[in-house]
Amino acid sequence: MTATYDTVSLFAGPGGLCLAAHANGLRPVGIEFDPDACLTRRAAGLPTIEGDVRDHSPADFPDAHTLIGGPPCQTFTVAGNGAGRRALDTVIAAARTMATTRTRPARDQWADERTGLVLEPLWWILNAKDNGHPYRTIVLEQVPAVLPVWQAYCDLLAWEGYDVHFGRLRAEQYGTPQTRSRAILIASLDGPVTLTAPTHRPYVKGVDRHEGDPALSTWRSMQDALPDRGPFVAVSNYGTGGDPKNRGRRSSLVPSATVTGKIFRTRLHGPDGNELPRYTPSEAGLLQGFPADYPWSGRDIGQQIGNACPVQLGAAVIGAALAPTRALTAA
Description:
By secondary structure, the protein is α/β, with parallel strands linked by helices. It folds into 2 domains: 2-200 and 309-330, Rossmann fold, CATH 3.40.50; 222-299, no CATH class. It contains 10 helices and 11 strands. It has helices at 16-23, 35-43, 83-86, 88-101, 120-130, 147-159, 222-225, 281-287, 301-307, 311-330, and strands at 7-10, 28-32, 48-50, 66-69, 137-142, 163-170, 181-188, 233-239, 247-251, 267-269, 275-276. A hairpin with a 7-residue loop joins strand 8 and strand 9 (247-251). Helix 1 packs parallel to helix 10 (311-330) and helix 4 packs parallel to helix 6. It is globular and about 65 Å long. The two termini are 30 Å apart.
């Protein structure tokens, strides 16, 4: 069964990166711990293994040449408890130790166990290489606070023969109707890689979307994604700049703010100021780049959507990571 998979998706969530992999002609299988996200994945027809990624290894997927994943971000995000951000130096030191010892860090060494999961992809990469079946292509995504960890990955993977590139990308510059920033890492054993250039203009508050580089498409607004809604104003459930009293407000004529797990708490107001029905699961998914008919299932669908990788951004970075391999194949 596993022989049909050429890609493993760690912390696969409801399927954002897997849809992006499919868009690039890959055949991914996802490992996901959350049973509700697994219900959504199965309803969408995505091959799924329900369980902890630490209970599996590259040997379970001998034909996979591509590794993708988005480790849990809760301890690193500004909206989370901050344990991961406070532990960045420890995480980076643990990454260097892992590269030397080739062993997984102990699960109980972190104040919050989820912090250490950011290193799990590194263990998979090193283990696969040590066993003679290295991943040719790697794509990882996380919140921007993890960029120092990706820098450590970059240094360590370069010693393993990978060409690596990492940086911060914005989802609206790749066609998602949302100004979500992500820390992206791509790596290849088949040649030089670079993060793909934006396809859309950046959103700048107060700047008309038709201004800017004419070679780039205009960013997409909430109204573009949700045309049946008509005009509205979205009032975020969280505070701008970390101030819980400073609720962010955006017109539907611009991209959404970052879609979080509390997306269904976003209040929507019509032009007359009256409150409108809140987002449906389909609408919230559309703001994250999912199809309108995506079969959201199980509980806490808002959290599933908020945890997902924007599909268009994922497709762009996977395409960039695969470019050296495709060039070799074409030659």
